[in-house]
C-alpha cells in the first residue's frame, strides 16, 4: 500500500475524530454521529492496509 493512501486513511480517521468532538461540544448529535462514522471508516481502512502489508511481505 502506498504511503499516500496510508496518510489519507489516517487523515480521514482524524477528521472523523474532530467532527465527533465538535459535535459533542456543540450538542449536535448528528455531527457527532457523522464524525464517529468517518472515524470508524478511516480506522477500518487502516486495518485493511496493515493486513495487506502483512501478507505482501
Biggest pleated-sheet summary: none
Q: Give the beta-strand count.
A: 0
Spans of at least 5 consecutive residues whose pLDDT stays below 50 are: none
Mean pLDDT: 93
The Cα radius of gyration reads: 13 Å
SS field, number of helical segments: 2
Termini gap: 11 Å
Can you tell me the overall shape? elongated
Tell me the series of helices and strands, N- to C-terminal: HH
Strand % is under 5%
- What is the helical fraction, as a range of percent? over 70%
Number of domains: 1
Helix- and strand-based class? mainly alpha
Folded structure, characterized:
The protein is an all-alpha fold and 57 residues long. The protein has one domain. The chain contains two helices and no strands. The longest helix has 28 residues. The N and C termini lie close together (11 Å).
Produce a short descriptive summary:
The chain is mostly helical and 57 residues long. Helices cover 91% and strands 0% of the residues. The longest helix is centred in the last third of the chain and has 28 residues, at 29-56.
Task: Throw out a few tags for this protein.
57 residues; mainly alpha; 2 helices
Q: In terms of topology, how is this protein built?
A:
Elements: H1 3-26, H2 29-56
Helix pairs in contact: 1-2
